[in-house]
Amino acid sequence: MEVGGQTIRAGEGVLCTLSTANRDEGAFTDPDELDLRRDARSHLSFGFGIHQCIGQSLARAEPQIALETLLRRLPGLRLAASFEELRFRDGVGFYGVKELPDPCPALPPDRP
C-alpha cells in the first residue's frame, strides 16, 4: 500500500499523531506558525465526532485562566532569551521548549 508517497509493507507499523494532523497545509494557512486568532475549528486536538473529548471545555479554559492570572500577578514577566535562543523538544509524542534559561521572578511577599 502507498500513502502520501510512502510504501507501507504488510506487517509494518504506522504511527499517526494528532499534532501532525494539526499541521496540515491543506487545512491550515501557515500551520507551523502560532496564531492564537486562527479559525481552527477543524483541528483534531480533542478528537472528532463521537470520540470527541468530553473534557475539552475545561482543557480550553485552564490555560486561559492560568495565563491571565500569571500575567496579572507578574505584569513585567518577559522571556530571558530570544525565541531563536530557545531549544525545543521535537519528539514523536511531545513538542515544546526543553527549558527556559531563567526561572520566573518570585512573587513579592505582599502579593497572593
Automatic annotation (TrEMBL):
<dbReference type="GO" id="GO:0020037">
    <property type="term" value="F:heme binding"/>
</dbReference>
<keyword id="KW-0349">Heme</keyword>
<dbReference type="GO" id="GO:0016705">
    <property type="term" value="F:oxidoreductase activity, acting on paired donors, with incorporation or reduction of molecular oxygen"/>
</dbReference>
<keyword id="KW-0479">Metal-binding</keyword>
<dbReference type="InterPro" id="IPR017972">
    <property type="entry name" value="Cyt_P450_CS"/>
</dbReference>
<dbReference type="GO" id="GO:0004497">
    <property type="term" value="F:monooxygenase activity"/>
</dbReference>
<keyword id="KW-0503">Monooxygenase</keyword>
<dbReference type="InterPro" id="IPR036396">
    <property type="entry name" value="Cyt_P450_sf"/>
</dbReference>
<keyword id="KW-0408">Iron</keyword>
<dbReference type="GO" id="GO:0005506">
    <property type="term" value="F:iron ion binding"/>
</dbReference>
<dbReference type="InterPro" id="IPR002397">
    <property type="entry name" value="Cyt_P450_B"/>
</dbReference>
<dbReference type="InterPro" id="IPR001128">
    <property type="entry name" value="Cyt_P450"/>
</dbReference>
<protein>
    <submittedName>
        <fullName>P450-like protein</fullName>
    </submittedName>
</protein>
<comment type="similarity">
    <text>Belongs to the cytochrome P450 family.</text>
</comment>
<dbReference type="Pfam" id="PF00067">
    <property type="entry name" value="p450"/>
</dbReference>
<keyword id="KW-0560">Oxidoreductase</keyword>
